[in-house]
Design goal:
By secondary structure, the chain is α/β, with parallel strands linked by helices. Helices cover 42% and strands 14% of the residues. The chain has an eight-stranded parallel β-sheet. The mean pLDDT is 96. It binds phosphoenolpyruvate (PEP).
Length: 249
Protein backbone atom coordinates (compact mmCIF):
# COMPACT_ATOMS: atom_id res chain seq x y z
CA UNK A 1 0.00 0.00 0.00
CA UNK A 2 1.21 3.50 -0.83
CA UNK A 3 2.59 5.24 2.24
CA UNK A 4 4.39 8.40 3.16
CA UNK A 5 8.02 7.54 3.87
CA UNK A 6 10.97 9.63 4.99
CA UNK A 7 14.27 7.75 4.96
CA UNK A 8 17.58 9.16 6.15
CA UNK A 9 20.62 7.93 4.25
CA UNK A 10 23.56 8.52 6.57
CA UNK A 11 26.06 7.38 3.90
CA UNK A 12 29.64 6.86 5.26
CA UNK A 13 29.05 9.18 8.22
CA UNK A 14 28.86 8.59 11.99
CA UNK A 15 31.04 6.17 13.91
CA UNK A 16 29.59 4.11 16.76
CA UNK A 17 29.50 6.92 19.34
CA UNK A 18 28.16 9.42 16.81
CA UNK A 19 25.47 6.92 15.77
CA UNK A 20 24.35 6.52 19.37
CA UNK A 21 24.33 10.25 20.03
CA UNK A 22 22.40 11.09 16.84
CA UNK A 23 19.82 8.49 17.88
CA UNK A 24 19.64 10.08 21.34
CA UNK A 25 18.86 13.37 19.55
CA UNK A 26 16.29 11.69 17.31
CA UNK A 27 14.53 10.38 20.41
CA UNK A 28 14.02 13.94 21.63
CA UNK A 29 12.06 14.87 18.51
CA UNK A 30 8.34 14.36 18.21
CA UNK A 31 6.51 13.18 15.15
CA UNK A 32 3.32 14.88 14.04
CA UNK A 33 3.02 13.34 10.56
CA UNK A 34 1.91 9.90 9.39
CA UNK A 35 5.22 9.19 7.60
CA UNK A 36 7.07 5.94 8.07
CA UNK A 37 10.53 6.95 9.29
CA UNK A 38 13.73 5.07 8.45
CA UNK A 39 17.42 5.60 9.01
CA UNK A 40 20.27 3.93 7.15
CA UNK A 41 23.46 3.89 9.24
CA UNK A 42 26.61 2.24 7.95
CA UNK A 43 26.82 -1.58 8.19
CA UNK A 44 29.04 -1.60 11.28
CA UNK A 45 26.48 0.37 13.29
CA UNK A 46 23.25 -1.40 12.31
CA UNK A 47 23.04 -3.50 15.48
CA UNK A 48 23.92 -0.55 17.69
CA UNK A 49 21.22 1.50 15.98
CA UNK A 50 18.59 -1.18 16.68
CA UNK A 51 19.71 -1.30 20.29
CA UNK A 52 19.70 2.48 20.72
CA UNK A 53 16.30 2.87 19.04
CA UNK A 54 14.43 0.38 21.19
CA UNK A 55 10.89 1.60 21.78
CA UNK A 56 10.96 4.14 18.97
CA UNK A 57 9.15 3.58 15.69
CA UNK A 58 12.08 4.20 13.38
CA UNK A 59 13.10 1.43 11.02
CA UNK A 60 16.79 0.72 10.66
CA UNK A 61 17.63 -0.03 7.04
CA UNK A 62 20.79 -0.82 5.05
CA UNK A 63 22.48 1.30 2.40
CA UNK A 64 23.47 -1.57 0.11
CA UNK A 65 23.95 -5.35 -0.14
CA UNK A 66 25.48 -7.97 -2.40
CA UNK A 67 23.35 -10.27 -4.56
CA UNK A 68 25.02 -13.53 -3.54
CA UNK A 69 23.96 -15.55 -0.50
CA UNK A 70 27.53 -16.00 0.73
CA UNK A 71 30.99 -16.81 -0.58
CA UNK A 72 34.20 -15.27 -1.84
CA UNK A 73 33.13 -11.64 -2.09
CA UNK A 74 35.57 -9.87 0.20
CA UNK A 75 34.12 -6.79 1.83
CA UNK A 76 30.53 -7.50 0.86
CA UNK A 77 27.38 -8.09 2.92
CA UNK A 78 24.50 -10.41 1.97
CA UNK A 79 20.75 -10.17 2.45
CA UNK A 80 20.89 -13.02 4.96
CA UNK A 81 23.49 -11.19 7.01
CA UNK A 82 21.36 -8.06 7.06
CA UNK A 83 18.32 -10.05 8.05
CA UNK A 84 20.24 -11.78 10.82
CA UNK A 85 20.69 -8.42 12.58
CA UNK A 86 17.07 -7.42 11.98
CA UNK A 87 17.26 -5.36 8.77
CA UNK A 88 14.20 -5.75 6.55
CA UNK A 89 14.72 -2.95 4.04
CA UNK A 90 17.69 -2.10 1.82
CA UNK A 91 18.52 0.87 -0.39
CA UNK A 92 19.72 -0.28 -3.81
CA UNK A 93 21.01 1.67 -6.79
CA UNK A 94 21.98 4.88 -5.04
CA UNK A 95 23.72 7.18 -7.53
CA UNK A 96 26.93 7.05 -5.45
CA UNK A 97 26.95 3.26 -5.81
CA UNK A 98 26.36 3.63 -9.55
CA UNK A 99 29.03 6.35 -9.99
CA UNK A 100 31.82 5.20 -7.65
CA UNK A 101 31.30 1.42 -7.61
CA UNK A 102 30.19 0.90 -11.21
CA UNK A 103 26.81 -0.56 -10.30
CA UNK A 104 24.84 -1.12 -13.48
CA UNK A 105 21.13 -1.71 -13.97
CA UNK A 106 21.93 -5.35 -14.79
CA UNK A 107 23.79 -5.82 -11.50
CA UNK A 108 21.02 -4.00 -9.66
CA UNK A 109 18.43 -6.36 -11.13
CA UNK A 110 20.32 -9.22 -9.45
CA UNK A 111 20.47 -7.35 -6.14
CA UNK A 112 16.75 -6.60 -6.31
CA UNK A 113 16.04 -10.29 -6.95
CA UNK A 114 18.19 -11.32 -3.99
CA UNK A 115 16.49 -8.85 -1.67
CA UNK A 116 13.01 -9.94 -2.77
CA UNK A 117 13.92 -13.62 -2.49
CA UNK A 118 14.83 -12.85 1.13
CA UNK A 119 11.49 -11.08 1.61
CA UNK A 120 13.20 -7.74 2.11
CA UNK A 121 11.79 -4.42 1.06
CA UNK A 122 13.82 -2.45 -1.49
CA UNK A 123 14.18 1.30 -1.85
CA UNK A 124 15.29 1.41 -5.47
CA UNK A 125 17.10 4.62 -6.49
CA UNK A 126 17.58 6.03 -9.96
CA UNK A 127 17.80 9.42 -11.64
CA UNK A 128 19.34 11.33 -14.49
CA UNK A 129 22.54 13.37 -14.62
CA UNK A 130 22.60 17.07 -15.37
CA UNK A 131 23.63 16.56 -19.01
CA UNK A 132 20.62 14.24 -19.50
CA UNK A 133 18.24 16.87 -18.20
CA UNK A 134 19.87 19.63 -20.26
CA UNK A 135 19.47 17.53 -23.40
CA UNK A 136 15.90 16.65 -22.47
CA UNK A 137 16.70 12.94 -22.08
CA UNK A 138 15.76 12.73 -18.39
CA UNK A 139 12.55 10.79 -18.94
CA UNK A 140 14.07 8.21 -21.27
CA UNK A 141 17.07 7.71 -18.95
CA UNK A 142 14.81 7.13 -15.95
CA UNK A 143 12.48 4.89 -17.93
CA UNK A 144 15.44 2.72 -18.98
CA UNK A 145 16.83 2.49 -15.46
CA UNK A 146 13.47 1.29 -14.14
CA UNK A 147 12.83 -1.10 -17.02
CA UNK A 148 16.27 -2.73 -16.91
CA UNK A 149 16.38 -3.26 -13.16
CA UNK A 150 12.72 -3.96 -12.35
CA UNK A 151 10.56 -4.87 -15.32
CA UNK A 152 11.41 -8.56 -15.16
CA UNK A 153 9.42 -8.66 -11.89
CA UNK A 154 5.81 -9.70 -11.41
CA UNK A 155 3.32 -7.03 -10.37
CA UNK A 156 3.05 -8.57 -6.91
CA UNK A 157 6.76 -7.86 -6.29
CA UNK A 158 5.96 -4.15 -6.18
CA UNK A 159 4.40 -4.66 -2.76
CA UNK A 160 8.03 -4.86 -1.58
CA UNK A 161 9.40 -2.01 -3.68
CA UNK A 162 9.65 1.70 -2.98
CA UNK A 163 11.02 3.89 -5.75
CA UNK A 164 13.32 6.84 -5.09
CA UNK A 165 13.78 9.36 -7.88
CA UNK A 166 17.06 11.16 -7.20
CA UNK A 167 18.32 13.46 -9.94
CA UNK A 168 22.10 13.13 -9.68
CA UNK A 169 22.59 16.88 -10.12
CA UNK A 170 20.56 17.52 -6.96
CA UNK A 171 22.26 15.05 -4.60
CA UNK A 172 24.44 16.76 -2.02
CA UNK A 173 24.71 19.86 -4.21
CA UNK A 174 22.23 22.12 -2.45
CA UNK A 175 20.34 22.31 -5.72
CA UNK A 176 16.88 20.72 -5.70
CA UNK A 177 14.52 19.81 -8.47
CA UNK A 178 11.65 22.27 -8.31
CA UNK A 179 8.46 20.80 -6.85
CA UNK A 180 7.04 20.90 -10.40
CA UNK A 181 10.04 19.05 -11.87
CA UNK A 182 9.70 16.43 -9.14
CA UNK A 183 5.95 16.08 -9.70
CA UNK A 184 6.35 15.81 -13.49
CA UNK A 185 8.94 13.06 -13.14
CA UNK A 186 7.01 11.18 -10.45
CA UNK A 187 3.86 11.27 -12.61
CA UNK A 188 5.92 9.98 -15.54
CA UNK A 189 7.33 7.16 -13.38
CA UNK A 190 3.83 6.19 -12.25
CA UNK A 191 2.61 6.25 -15.85
CA UNK A 192 5.55 4.03 -16.89
CA UNK A 193 4.60 1.55 -14.15
CA UNK A 194 0.93 1.72 -15.14
CA UNK A 195 1.71 0.88 -18.79
CA UNK A 196 3.49 -2.29 -17.74
CA UNK A 197 1.61 -3.38 -14.60
CA UNK A 198 -1.71 -1.51 -14.64
CA UNK A 199 -2.94 1.56 -12.80
CA UNK A 200 -3.72 -0.26 -9.56
CA UNK A 201 -0.14 -1.43 -9.09
CA UNK A 202 1.23 1.96 -10.19
CA UNK A 203 -0.97 3.75 -7.65
CA UNK A 204 0.13 1.44 -4.86
CA UNK A 205 3.88 2.16 -5.14
CA UNK A 206 5.43 4.88 -2.98
CA UNK A 207 7.72 7.15 -4.99
CA UNK A 208 10.19 9.18 -2.94
CA UNK A 209 12.09 12.24 -4.07
CA UNK A 210 15.74 12.69 -3.10
CA UNK A 211 18.14 15.53 -3.75
CA UNK A 212 18.91 18.31 -1.25
CA UNK A 213 15.59 18.07 0.58
CA UNK A 214 15.79 20.42 3.56
CA UNK A 215 13.36 21.70 6.20
CA UNK A 216 12.81 24.80 4.05
CA UNK A 217 11.72 23.02 0.86
CA UNK A 218 10.24 19.72 2.08
CA UNK A 219 6.67 20.93 2.55
CA UNK A 220 6.34 22.23 -0.99
CA UNK A 221 7.92 19.12 -2.53
CA UNK A 222 5.78 16.76 -0.40
CA UNK A 223 2.62 18.67 -1.29
CA UNK A 224 2.79 17.30 -4.84
CA UNK A 225 0.34 14.46 -5.46
CA UNK A 226 2.83 11.90 -6.79
CA UNK A 227 5.57 12.61 -4.25
CA UNK A 228 5.12 10.13 -1.40
CA UNK A 229 8.15 11.07 0.66
CA UNK A 230 11.85 11.68 0.61
CA UNK A 231 15.24 10.04 0.71
CA UNK A 232 17.31 12.45 2.72
CA UNK A 233 21.12 12.68 2.80
CA UNK A 234 22.76 15.71 4.43
CA UNK A 235 19.72 16.90 6.36
CA UNK A 236 19.29 13.44 7.94
CA UNK A 237 22.47 14.00 9.95
CA UNK A 238 20.80 16.62 12.17
CA UNK A 239 17.92 15.32 14.25
CA UNK A 240 15.97 18.60 14.21
CA UNK A 241 16.28 19.05 10.47
CA UNK A 242 15.37 15.43 9.83
CA UNK A 243 12.23 15.68 11.93
CA UNK A 244 11.29 19.01 10.37
CA UNK A 245 11.27 17.06 7.09
CA UNK A 246 9.41 14.07 8.59
CA UNK A 247 6.77 16.49 9.87
CA UNK A 248 6.48 18.34 6.56
CA UNK A 249 3.58 16.08 5.55
C1 LIG B 1 20.91 11.04 -0.95
O1 LIG B 1 22.04 10.75 -0.60
O2 LIG B 1 20.13 10.16 -1.30
C2 LIG B 1 20.54 12.45 -0.96
C3 LIG B 1 19.38 12.77 -1.47
O3 LIG B 1 21.44 13.34 -0.43
P1 LIG B 1 21.18 14.91 -0.13
O4 LIG B 1 19.85 15.00 0.59
O5 LIG B 1 22.31 15.33 0.72
O6 LIG B 1 21.12 15.60 -1.45
Amino acid sequence: MRKHIVAGNWKMNNDLVQTQSLITELKKQSQTSDAEVMIAPTFTNLSAAFEALKGLEIEVIAQNMHFAESGAYTGEVSAEMLKSVGVQTVILGHSERRAYFNETDELLAKKVDAALANKMRVIFCFGEELADRKSDKHESIVENQIKKALFHLKASAFEQIVLAYEPVWAIGTGETASPEQAQDMHAFIRETLAKKYGQETANSVSILYGGSVKPGNAKEIFSKPDVDGGLIGGAALKAEDFYAIVNAF
